[in-house]
């Protein structure tokens, strides 16, 4: 029998994944992804199995990077209507294979990877697309992604003010009390968004909660939620009047309800901007819609 795979739990992953390490690796991975056959990344759109009886979904996200010779798949589950449960709404495991023979080398906790990778990619997009100066950060949502984005964004940028809104006000207050730094807890999404230069939408909403009429012209929005074709976070006005960037065109155009239902056109992948083949139109109102591309850092 071959060697048993190693198991890397959340503490180990947490220890090795910091934003200064992750960001340059993900920039490289995004460039490779957006370089077609030259970049050598093979990553089909993920397969999603609805677990309708329990309002859940199982997603399988295989990928192979020729350049890194890395063969992996993430398996993710996500459940709607999680309110008081201790079990996170999103759980993930990454399986790493030996590419030369297909043996399973490692089973890695994917929750920390998902939280940090997503925030790191949003930070990459924000660095390229935010207005200058960018003084006010707004976060809609107070869950795992809100936390990782707050951590990444306060490390990577120098906002003068951070505003947060969450559907359950107590959760936003708990968030504000738990993190370092001053955060203004807002009573409505509109109040939180007003005057913000950079906005993060990190909710499980299935209806629009961010409206274009509230958004300051030139602001940059990182939209993470609404990963099903019939779910929304952003309204049509915002989607149609912003320049739209994505992590992967193919997946975003299939999976993102904000894109599918608004009919908005994708302007570029972030990897194309990093490569210099598409411009970063930071002076315009920009949306970065991410759909959880499993990029393959070395
Ligand atoms: N694009 C990517 O790469 C990527 C990767 C991972 C996750 N995501 C997405 O990011 C979003 C947040 O994930 P998470 O891990 O942070 O989830 P989470 O920890 O469960 O937090 C969910 C947040 O959404 C809010 N919420 C739930 N239902 C809502 C509704 N109907 N209307 C408004 N707010 C609602 C909750 O508010 P209260 O607790 O205050 O009620 C909470 O703040 C999800 O949509 C997830 O699928 C995207």
Write the layout of secondary structure elements.
Elements: E1 6-8, H1 10-16, H2 19-33, H3 36-39, E2 41-42, E3 47-51, E4 56-65, E5 70-79, E6 90-97, E7 104-109, H4 110-129, E8 136-140, H5 144-156, E9 161-165, H6 169-178, E10 184-185, H7 189-193, E11 198-201, E12 220-223, H8 236-241, E13 243-246, H9 249-255, H10 257-262, E14 268-269, H11 270-275, E15 286-289
Parallel strand pairs: 1-7, 8-9, 8-11, 9-10, 11-12, 12-15, 13-14, 13-15
Antiparallel strand pairs: 2-4, 3-4, 4-5, 5-6, 6-7
Helix pairs in contact: 2-4, 4-5
Give the structure's gist in a few sentences.
The chain is of the alpha/beta class and 298 residues long. Helix content is 33%, strand content 25%. The protein folds into two domains: 6-112, 2-Layer Sandwich (ornithine cyclodeaminase, domain 1); 117-289, Rossmann fold (3-Layer(aba) Sandwich).
């Amino acid at each position: 029998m071959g060697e048993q795979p190693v198991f890397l739990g959340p503490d180990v992953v947490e220890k090795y994944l910091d934003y200064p390490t992750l960001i340059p690796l993900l920039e490289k991975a995004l460039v490779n992804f957006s370089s077609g056959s030259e970049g050598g990344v093979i990553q089909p759109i993920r397969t999603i199995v609805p677990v309708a009886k329990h309002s859940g979904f199982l997603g399988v996200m295989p990928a192979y990077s020729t350049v890194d010779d890395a063969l992996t798949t993430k398996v993710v589950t996500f459940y709607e209507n999680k309110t008081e449960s201790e079990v996170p709404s999103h759980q993930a495991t990454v399986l790493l294979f030996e590419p030369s023979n297909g043996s399973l080398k490692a089973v890695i906790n994917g929750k920390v990877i998902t939280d940090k990778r997503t925030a790191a990619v949003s930070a990459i997009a924000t660095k390229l697309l935010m207005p200058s100066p960018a003084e006010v950060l707004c976060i809609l949502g107070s869950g795992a992604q809100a936390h990782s984005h707050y951590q990444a964004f306060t490390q990577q940028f120098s906002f003068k003010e951070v505003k947060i809104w969450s559907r359950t006000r107590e959760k936003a207050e708990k968030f504000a009390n738990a993190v370092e730094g001053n955060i203004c807890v807002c009573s409505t999404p509109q109040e939180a968004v007003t005057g913000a230069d950079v906005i993060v939408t990190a909710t499980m909403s299935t209806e629009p909660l961010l409206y274009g009429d509230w958004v300051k012209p030139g602001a940059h929005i990182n939209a993470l939620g609404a990963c099903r074709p019939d779910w929304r976070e952003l309204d049509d006005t915002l989607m149609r009047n912003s320049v739209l960037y994505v992590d992967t065109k193919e997946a975003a155009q299939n999976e993102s309800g904000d894109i599918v239902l608004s009919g908005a056109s994708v302007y570029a992948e972030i990897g194309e901007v990093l490569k210099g083949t598409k411009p970063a139109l930071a002076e315009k109102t920009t949306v970065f819609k991410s759909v959880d591309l499993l990029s393959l850092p070395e």
